[in-house]
Amino acid sequence: MIQIFGTVCYDKVRIIDEFPNLIGSYTTVNSEKMFLGGEASNTFMCLIRWLIENNENKESVKLIAEPIKKDSNGEIVLSFLEPYKDNVTYTCLIDKDQDNEFLKNSPGADIYVCLKEKERTMFGIGFVEADQLMYNIKSKIFNDCLQFGNEHWIALDYNTPFISKEIIKKAVETKTNLYIMDHEIDSVIKELVNSSDGVLENLKEMSLVYQSSSDWFGNKNGDKQVFLTTMKEWLQSNNGANKYFLLILTDSKNGFGVGGTLRNYKTGESTYIEPYWFDPVQIPSDKIVDSTGAGDAFRAGLIYSLIYKNQALNKSLQFASASGGLNCLSYGGNSRTPTFKEILELINSKQ
């Protein structure tokens, strides 16, 4: 089972010509649309649509959604997910009139997409509260929502840092395979290594992917060799624990570095790969509309190709890169995800 855990919310996308030049100034909104949003949603929607498109086993993927309050915005989120309800588990659904100390509003984001700069900025609500609520009911989540064990995968992101940290700990304890995106993991790995002698052995018997970016590691639009050096240093840290991860460090349209341990979770066979640079499958810049969800679509592509289909690493990275790029051709993170056919056509056109 591949479980996509984390952020499920509404995205209210507003299209503007340019960002305000001064605080307090006025900017016209050209249009506004409501979409399903969140890192987990974006990755899940790519995966489930490819499985449907190719008549493959839909039961192999499940979305584990953060708490949703059934207010007007929450009901919109639920309606987006209704066609895929058999593949969705909700950690907590709260009636709109139900009193609770945490979640007053269903999680959501106001996203402003600038046409001139082809960039976006976001304002969120409810995410910290949802994370706190899940931390409080973590026993229920562990027992009723997630499946642990070496035959399972859990993918998670950093919008839910408290509960995600607990899931990482539980996963290492149970040797559950992990795909971690943008989460600050050095502190939790260091804590685990210092707390138990068996942690390194458990990590060795897990398949681990860590996807992050220059937004977190620095050196945005910087020298590629600096990226690779940074990756080598990271993989050598935490008393050797980090070397068990396959590290993918992205730098937007410039490409990404790849290195670390590639382990087949079915056979247990593993290979250590020295960090190297991978040029992306390019999308013409004049066709890019909105980069929301590009990293999530990349993650979906790698999960589908490398983990689900057991394809070779470079072939899987091509698929992931094409998926992330094509996802930028429409507004929102998953309003229109790239089809399997479109991804293959783009890859073939570059060869």
UniProtKB/TrEMBL annotation:
Protein's name in the database: Carbohydrate kinase PfkB domain-containing protein
Entry keywords, A to Z: Kinase, Transferase
Limits of the Carbohydrate kinase PfkB domain: 282-338
Species this protein is from: Dictyostelium purpureum (Slime mold)
A biological process term (GO) from this entry: response to insulin
Keyword NADP included in the entry's annotation: no
Molecular function via GO: ketohexokinase activity
Gene Ontology, cellular component aspect: cytoplasm
InterPro entries associated with the record: Carboh/pur_kinase_PfkB_CS, Ketohexokinase-related, PfkB_dom, Ribokinase-like
Record has Transferase as a keyword: yes
Gene3D superfamilies xref list: 3.40.1190.20
Any Pfam family: PfkB
